[in-house]
Design brief:
By secondary structure, the protein is an alpha+beta fold. It has helices at residues 4-7, 21-31, 51-56, 79-89, 94-97, 111-120, 141-149; strands at residues 15-16, 35-39, 45-50, 66-69, 72-75, 125-129, 135-140. The model has no long low-confidence stretch (mean pLDDT 87).
Length: 151
């Protein structure tokens, strides 16, 4: 049975946490990947940035509907979504734009379990991190497919 370190790509593309959002977009397009890990100066995972994050960063922000009741402003749903949209459109660095709730894998994790994560979470890539959260590789859907076709 194979584990994550057997199928991961160790020559992966990542962006630095302090890279400007424009650079992240260029790196993402040039790499041909759908998402990239964001790392700090020590190579520790800070988050992930995907195509959707970059598209969201360039959208118009939709203001939530507010009603006034007894001099209090009450938002009618969507406040969390508004805050998330606002965070993305005001981001100037990779760290500010990155999604911080990242699905990761350990090097010794079962390869089938990683494939399951990719499918269940509908994500394109899972960073493989060591015990200190340093990114040691990445597993994409292509890596899983390659493993299935060439066991």
């Amino acid at each position: 049975m194979k584990n994550a370190s057997d199928i991961m790509t160790t020559a992966f593309v990542a962006v630095q946490a302090d890279d400007p959002v424009e650079k992240v977009g260029s790196v993402l397009l040039e790499s041909g990947h759908h998402s990239l890990p964001v790392v700090d100066n020590d190579g520790r995972l800070v988050g992930m940035i995907g195509e959707r994050d970059l598209i969201d960063a360039h959208r118009r922000v939709h203001l939530p509907t507010l009603v006034t009741i007894l001099d209090a402003l009450i938002p009618l749903g969507g406040m969390r979504e508004y805050e998330e949209e606002l965070r993305k459109v005001t981001a100037v660095t990779a760290r500010q734009l990155a999604s911080t709730q990242v699905v990761t894998a350990a090097p010794d994790e079962d390869a089938d379990a990683v494939a399951e994560k990719l499918l269940r979470k509908d994500i394109h890539a899972v960073p493989v991190v060591d015990g200190e959260k340093r990114v040691v590789g990445i597993i994409t859907r292509s890596d899983v497919l390659r493993n299935l076709l060439n066991p």
